[in-house]
From TrEMBL:
This is Heat-shock protein.
Length: 151
């Protein structure tokens, strides 16, 4: 899936379009050794067999809104030049710590954001370094070095 969203990046005179793509990891999970799943439960991606996950699938329905609201979300370093955003409120009012992992790059003048994975965290988020979404966008647009994780 591809989404193209215009953002008004601070200190940039015009709206900038960001292109978002989503991996099948947002609605699948890794296979467990002891699992014996039928073929219909396995997502048919040749080089990366994964199990379809109903919970991840239901949560992934929030991703379009999460992507549109990324500037307002708490973003942090996920390691390996990845950024994360989390916490969503479900329709019933319960809050879920939902880790959305994405990487960014510029290709042929386009700002690309690829959501590599998204899943509910089973435990509290530890100490992380906050990253301003606008700094990521501005630096990417200007060809500057992207924010790095704390060492």
């Amino acid at each position: 899936m591809l989404a193209s969203i215009p953002f008004n990046i601070p200190n940039v005179m015009k709206a900038t379009r960001c292109f978002f793509t989503f991996s099948h990891h947002v609605f699948t999970r890794g296979l467990k050794e002891e699992e014996n799943l039928d073929l219909l439960s396995i997502y048919p991606y040749p080089s990366d067999q994964r199990a379809f996950d109903v919970t991840r699938f239901e949560l992934s329905k929030h991703l379009p809104q999460i992507v549109e609201l990324l500037p307002e979300k708490f973003c942090y370093h996920g390691g390996y030049s990845r950024y994360c955003s989390c916490k969503i409120t479900q329709d019933d009012g319960t809050e879920i710590v939902y880790q959305v992992v994405y990487r960014v790059w510029k290709e042929r003048g386009k700002m690309r954001f690829h959501i590599e994975s998204a899943y509910p965290l089973q435990e509290r988020l530890g100490r992380v370094k906050k990253v301003n979404f606008w700094v990521i966008c501005y630096n990417l647009l200007q060809g500057k070095k992207l924010p790095q994780p704390a060492k």
